[in-house]
Amino acid sequence: MNPIPRISTRGYYDLSTGSTLKNNSYFTYPKKDFKKLVNSKELTIMIHGLRNDNAGAVAKVLLAKKQLRKLGYVHPVIGYSYDSNTTGAHLIKHAKHALAVGQKIAKKNGRNLGKFIEDFKLTSPKTKIRLMGHSLGSQVILSTLEYLAKKKQNIGVVEGVYFFGASITEDVPSSKKYGKIIQSIVNSKVVNHYAPTDEVLNWANNEKYVKGPLGLNGATGKPVKKYRQKLVKPKNHRFASYADVLNSFP
User: Fold this and answer.
1) Which listed site, 19, 25, 87, 245, has its alpha carbon 20 to 30 Å from 234?
2) CA gap 250, 146 in Å, rounded
């Protein structure tokens, strides 16, 4: 099997504290596959959630690619792999700390993914870039948009954003700060696939680990024009279940 092209920041952040270990921007693998992506009409980057090691990250890209191909999407689908397998994430008693560390790392990765997008657009200005994020991956995307919004030349640089089981808060699409960022950096639309039945988001909400996750009941307030939401019924919180109920893309 050919390796899945991915952008990675593995080993850049401490899994038990979230502190930065390396200030590098990112690395790409395999290099030759990234050369082939230059001048593609478009590409989609899949960003996984919490509790994914490198193999988990690769599995999510394969799931995304398989489903998008089924829906007739023919462009490259690549992965973004970051330190989300935080210490103790699988144990209930450590869940809150592990999630907090995961969120901290996800926020920091906004700079890393943002840098990749800027760099790639320099070599391939016409390529449209779409971002898909599952669960904590939604935070990576939000922080990426925030990073990109610091420069005027990044207006409309991300073609579209697609959230699945998003763990960012429900007020984001209508907030003054993020609403403005979404409108300026995302060219076409942000699509949020939300599921009131999602057991993990329900648990996180009830425990007040995430107050009002966007992926649970959709957005509150008056979301910005480029925001859309779709009610879906996945079997559970796993990305595989969200991929199963995805019926159109982009």
Assistant:
1) 87
2) 22
Cα separation, 182 vs 187, whole angstroms: 9
DSSP codes, 80-105:
EE-S---TTTTSGGGHHHHHHHHHHH
Q: In this structure, what CATH number is given to the domain that contains residue 87? A: 3.40.50.1820
- Residue 164 belongs to some domain of the structure: yes
Cβ(220)–Cβ(43) below 8 Å: no
Report which DSSP code applies to 4. Answer: P
- Domain contains 186: yes
* Residue 77 φ/ψ, nearest 5 degrees: -120, 120
In this structure, is residue 31 part of a structural domain? no
Q: How many domains does the chain have?
A: 1
| Domain span holding position 204 | 37-245
Distance of CA 23 to the CA centre of its chain: 21
Q: Is residue 17 part of a domain?
A: no
Whether the bond between 213 and the residue before it is cis, its omega within 30 degrees of 0, is no
